[in-house]
Amino acid sequence: EVSTWRDLWLYCIFLVPLYGVLSVLVYRMNSEGFMGDTGALTCYIVIVLLIISQIYKAISINVPILKAGIPQDDKYPFSSVAALNTNYFANFGAELAVVSVLPMFFQSTWSLNATTAGLIASTFAFVNLWARPLGGYISDLVGSRRKVMLSYMLGICIGFALMGTLNGSWPIFIAVLVTIGCSVFVQGAEGATFGIIPSIKRRLTGQISGMAGAYGNVGAVFYLFIFSFVDAHTFFYIIATGAFISWVVCFIWLKEPEDAYGEEYHMSSVDREIAEEEAKTAQLN
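and the corresponding structure tokens:
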């Protein structure tokens, strides 16, 4: 459910990668010989049909609503949702991709055995236990959820750029500190993302959360696909670039939610109508 015609087209555009990313998996399976050309072609056709069906559904649902008119107090900026989609693509997508790469990176760069490399690489994921809740807490504590989001994304960009400079000449403990520092921003950005989502349009919180969360997996598939063509250092620089692009998108599109720190849920006219209808239905039952 969107609020303007522009938002509808933007929504349709952002539906494409959710299913289109499956074509990357099909391509890899086909190129590695795990799937024949006929099977791959069939999968591509199914993916295209899925995209078309989802876009058709989005248009068929929203066009009548937009034609009927949406009350001003019930509108919300889908551009903020799009910004958070790119945001989660760049942070959670990066996390899933990096935890798959780090053990090999540490093993080959510092000539470690597999066990030691795996233990050191696990520090990136271990930080998640406290850094992600911290991101949500800071988002609640500071007076601007948008500024918190932008700060974390800038930190991710710097963190991965530093990881791209790591090589065997660096002391291993410095490399671990850089990895942990980068992870703090990555995990914190994930927490801050879901700190801001409920404030965009609370009636649609589940749908917005689901779409943003799905983009995290899109990012992971995309980054790992890219990694199959580059070395680890280039890979980290590419992730840093993705984080910077997301930062720019958030800077332009992400709006500070109205009443983001309100103690009570502000109900729009549509929310009240829905609540009244549900109350009447409950009385009849």
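(Above: one complete record from the training split.) The chain has two domains: 1-70, 76-257+264-272.
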